Amino acid sequence: MAMRAAVDSSYGGMQHGSVGDKPSDADPAAAAAVSLPPVTMAPHPENSLYWISGQVNVIFQGNLPFHSPYQGTNSFRDAAEYKTSMVGTLFSALRRSHSIRYNTDFLFDMEDALGRGLSQALGLAGFTNLDVVRNPYLSQAPYIARYGIHQVIGLTNETTSQAQGPLSPAPDVPVRRIELRAGKMTLPDVFDINDVGSDSHLQFMNWTADNNGAWDYAADTRGYTVGGLAEYDDRAWSVRYGLFAMPTVANGLDLDWAFSRAHGQNGEFELRRSLVANRKGVTRVLFYANRAHMGDYREAVAAYLAGVDPTPTITSHEHFSALKYGFGFNHEQELTNTLRVFERFGWNEGQHESFAYTEVDQTVEAGGDLAGARWHRPLDKVGLVVISNAIKRDHQNYLRYGGLGFLLGDGRLNYGRENIVESYYNWHAWRGLFYGVDGQHFNNPGYNRDRGPVWVGSVRAHVDF
Questions:
Q1: Model-level pTM greater than 0.90?
Q2: 156 to each of 26, 102, 152, 259, how far by Cα in Å?
Q3: Phi, psi at residue 16, to the nearest 5°?
Q4: Burial environment of residue 105 by CB neighbours within 10 A (0 to 12, 13 to 18, 19 or more)
Q5: Within 7-58, where are the H helices?
Q6: How far is Cα 80 from Cα 82, in angstroms, rounded to an integer?
C-alpha cells in the first residue's frame, strides 16, 4: 500500500500533501507547534529552493489463534503468526523560484517496501497494516513512488503560511489560489485527508482507519497511479477534482493507459468551519466514479446458479468501461489543545467488483486521539477508533457461494458486518525517532460470523530524516 507523504501535522513536522487545510499565521495550534521539540533527525532549511527528506517505518505484527471451523483460499489463517514490514521513502522537491504567487515545484520520490502481511494480506476487508503490499509475489526492489509537477497560481497578493512538506515545500501560499498537479502520485496524498486518522507512520495502522474503506480509489497494487488534478482554495473552503489511470486488472500493477475506457474520477469539497468556538474543524465530502474492465457480482452468481460456471468467477464476467461509483464523508474536530475526534462514512454501489483498494461497500468509523501534555509527554499520542465495514447483497452472495475476490474468500459465508476496534500509543523517543504499540480486535473477519474473533498486536518503529 502507498505511504502518505507526511506525518501527523500536530507534531509540527511535515504535513499531508493536501493543500486545502493549511494553518494561518494566526492559528494558535500552528504557533504552539513551533515551540515543540524537533521531530526530524535533521532540520529542513527555511525557505529553501529544494526539499530532501526521508522516512523509515517498520511494523512487527502477530495474531493469536482463533476459532475457525473452515477456511478457504483467501482466508485469514487461524493459526498464530507474525510478520514484519518495512517501508523506506526518499522525498525530494525542487522549487523553480522563491515566488509565492506563481510557485512551481518539481517532485520525485523513491520508495522500497519489504516484508509481508499476516496471511499474505488476505482475509480481512480492513487489513491490519497499511504499509503492506497486497501482492506477495511483487518485486521488493526500490521503485519510483512519485514524480510530477505542482503549480500554484495565486489569485491575490494576500498570503498565508503553511507547514512545509515534500508535496508543498513553499513556506507560504496565496490565500486564494489555483493549484495544479500532474504526474505519478497516490490519491490519499490529496483526497480524504484527516489529521487524526490518515497516517500509518504515527497513528492507526488499519486500512479502513487511515482511509475510507468504501473509496475504491484508482491505484496499482502499491497504491499509486498517474494522472492530474486541479484545486481551488479560498479562505474557508476548497474544491478539487482529478482524473487518474485505473489498473488493467483488480489489484494489478499495470495501468490501463486508454483513458477513454478506463479512468478514475475523484472530486472533493472541503469546508474549514469548526463546530467548537476557537478550535479547528474540517468537513470533507468526496465522490468517485471509476470506469475499468470490471466484473459484476450479480452476473457471476447468476452464471453459477445456471450451471455455466462451476464456481462464481468474477473475472469471467468483466466488461470494459464498467462503472463503479460512491461517495464519502470525512470530519475532524479539535475539542481541546490535546483532544481531537474524527469520523468517516463511505458508500459505493457494490454491484461491481472491488477493484483497487479493498472489499468494502459501506463503512462507518469514529475515533480520536489525545496528546500527552497532561503526563508531560507533549509529542506522545494515544488513539482509539471503532470501524464497521459492510458489503452489499450481490457481493455477499458471491462470497457465500464460494467466489474469490482479490482479498476475500473463505469458501462460504455466514454474513455479518466486519467490526474493528483499534488503539495505539505512540512514544516520541528523540528528534525524529518514534516507537508505537498497537492492538486490533476483529469481529466477523472477512464478514464471516463463523470465524473469529481475531486479536492482532503490533510494535512500530518510525524515523523521519
A1: yes
A2: 19, 11, 12, 35
A3: -60, 160
A4: buried
A5: 28-34
A6: 7
CA distance 369 to 383: 4
Within 64-219, strands assigned E span 81-95, 104-115, 143-154, 159-161, 172-174, 177-185
Q: Looking at residue 20, what DSSP letter applies?
A: S
Asked whether the predicted pLDDT for residue 17 surpasses 80, the reply is no
Q: What is the mean pLDDT of residues 333-357?
A: 97
> Before 453, cis peptide (omega within 30)?
yes
**Confidence tier at 22 by pLDDT (50, 70, 90):** very low
Quick one: which of 268, 163, 251 has its CA closest to 212?
A: 268
CB 200 within 8 A of CB 3: yes
Q: Where are the domains of the chain?
A: 9-464
| Residue whose C-alpha cell reads 518485486 in the numeric block | 139
DSSP 229-280: EEEEE-SSEEEEEEEEPPBSSTT-SSB---TTTSEEEEEEEEE---SSTTS-
Best CA proximity match to 438, nearest among 14, 57, 9: 57
Buried b (16+ CB within 10 A) or exposed e, 143-172: eebbbbebebebeeeebbbbbbbbbbbbeb
Q: Which H or E element spans position 378?
A: strand 377-390
Q: For residue range 381-402, what is the model confidence (pLDDT) as tens digits?
A: 999 999 999 999 999 999 999 9
- Return the CATH fold of 9-464: Porin (2.40.160)
> First CA to last CA across the chain, in angstroms?
21
At 143, phi and psi to the nearest 5? Answer: -145, 160
231-245 in b/e burial notation, b at 16+ Cβ within 10 A? Answer: bbbeeeebebbbebb
Does residue 24 carry a pLDDT above 80?
no
Q: Is 289 helix (H, G, I), strand (E, B) or coil?
A: strand
**C-alpha dist (Å) from residue 346 to 82, 327, 391, 437:** 31, 6, 11, 28
CB count within 10 Å of CB 50 equals 12
